[in-house]
Amino acid sequence: MEKFHLFFCIMVLALSSFSKKATVHGGMNTTGINHVKGIVGAILDYSFRIGKEEKVAMEMAIDDFFNHTNQSFILQLKYSQGEPIKAALFPSPPLVAATDLINTQRVQAIVGPRTWEEASLVAEVGSQSNVPVLSLADPTPPWATKRWPFLIQASPSQQAQIKAVAAVVQSWGWRRVILIYEDTDSAAIGVIPHLPGALQEVGAEISHFVAIPPLASSSLSEELEKLNRQQCRVFVVHSSLPLALTLFETAKKMKMKMMEKDYVWITTNSTASLVHSIINKATAISSMQGVLGVMSNFPETGPEFQDFHPRFRRKFSAEHPEEDNYEPGIFALQAYDARWAVALAMMETNESGQQLFDKILLTDFNGLSGEIQFTEQKLAPGNVFLIINVIGKSYRELGFWSDGGLGFSESIDEGAIYNADIENLLQVFWPGGASD
Ligand SMILES: *[C@@H]1O[C@H](CO)[C@@H](O)[C@H](O)[C@H]1NC(C)=O
Ligand SMILES: *[C@@H]1O[C@H](CO)[C@@H](O)[C@H](O)[C@H]1NC(C)=O
Ligand SMILES: *[C@@H]1O[C@H](CO)[C@@H](O)[C@H](O)[C@H]1NC(C)=O
Ligand SMILES: *[C@@H]1O[C@H](CO)[C@@H](O)[C@H](O)[C@H]1NC(C)=O
Ligand SMILES: *[C@@H]1O[C@H](CO)[C@@H](O)[C@H](O)[C@H]1NC(C)=O
What we know:
This protein is α/β, with parallel strands linked by helices. It has helices at residues 2-16, 49-69, 93-103, 116-128, 144-147, 160-171, 185-189, 195-201, 220-228, 241-253, 269-272, 282-286, 303-319, 330-348, 353-361, and strands at 36-44, 72-79, 109-111, 133-135, 151-153, 176-182, 205-212, 234-238, 264-267, 292-296, 364-366, 371-375, 378-379, 384-391, 394-402, 407-409.
């Protein structure tokens, strides 16, 4: 790790003089705005669904904040290009973006990016310049907030979902599962190391670990054939949506049709929380029929979301007619909340740097994604997960799983009835069309 760190420092130094060359993307007309309360930066990858939703949500947050408080902020957006650090690419895009935001655009805080590889680079630059960085990257290693004093983890820890996955496995009494996961740094520090223990606690085990390299597709059918020779028919899939789709399409086409009766597929949050983006995409959704998913829940029935939802759809459809549908996912709400938290803190303090950072850490409000509060520089994780089941052109919400000894329930309203047994929820539509 030390070598890694040194590498950062050298790159950051090299960039201090280099930053003017970076391209400015996004941003607003700042002429004549001298009542502006602050400048906030964001590093996104808007070539993908997540970044597109985040951009729209952050712009809405700035507008809404102005409507509520008469305080305006300038939003400086940068494109991260999505690629994690490639050693050959020097300096790497997120690093250029962060340096440029800080040195040229003079932002007081940065939100994003989404991958841990990118977030660590941005955190390094931010911490060197005393600029708070609100990372939306899912898994962040526990030591990160100690190493980078200006890093705030503004999306919940991925680990919270592990118990929900284990509860689903336990509820049907499955003893063995096969774990298929995308072999990324994120997986290695997030869910994967903790899943075996969680399953063990409910009397189940992982019979096979199958790591698939990102973007792999050629080896998938071979891999699936091998797995099909095992007795185990319960699969847990932890991967990005694109890889999961390739996997399901491959499984469906196989001679031993693995998307048929007697097979069980459970996807974790990284796939499930993006399923909304493929509604209406016939080939994709048809290859996922019967798949179960465990995903982050958000207060969909609250007045804030009800107000946000139609406005988001309108703006998103206008900016992204190419998308198959215009529903916001949890990550849009997280980006909105992170942006809101920064704006609130800036409104309350005229200082940048340490004071602003301290103020952000005191954040306490009910956001669109849930309660926004930080403990040790980390967003307190939600303890409710939604269990979904893909069917027809879309998916059904089977119900919820809540931590703290509560278990499964059809609703989480006051007076909801909780049960350790998932079978009290809606009937599952299994692969091959079987309902039981
Ligand atoms: C920026 O705004 C000012 C004042 O509103 C306007 O006069 C100017 O034309 C705008 N510039 C651009 C590039 O839009
Ligand atoms: C802000 O408020 C005005 C007046 O109430 C309204 O017309 C406008 O649509 C609002 N903008 C947003 C982004 O909510
Ligand atoms: C914002 O400013 C407008 C016009 O100056 C005023 O009518 C409105 O009440 C203000 N809103 C808030 C929330 O302060
Ligand atoms: C679920 O995935 C989404 C999209 O990547 C992410 O924004 C959210 O933080 C994740 N939630 C958990 C608990 O991992
Ligand atoms: C911040 O600065 C503005 C104008 O410079 C001033 O009116 C306001 O009182 C200051 N707020 C705080 C909390 O210091």
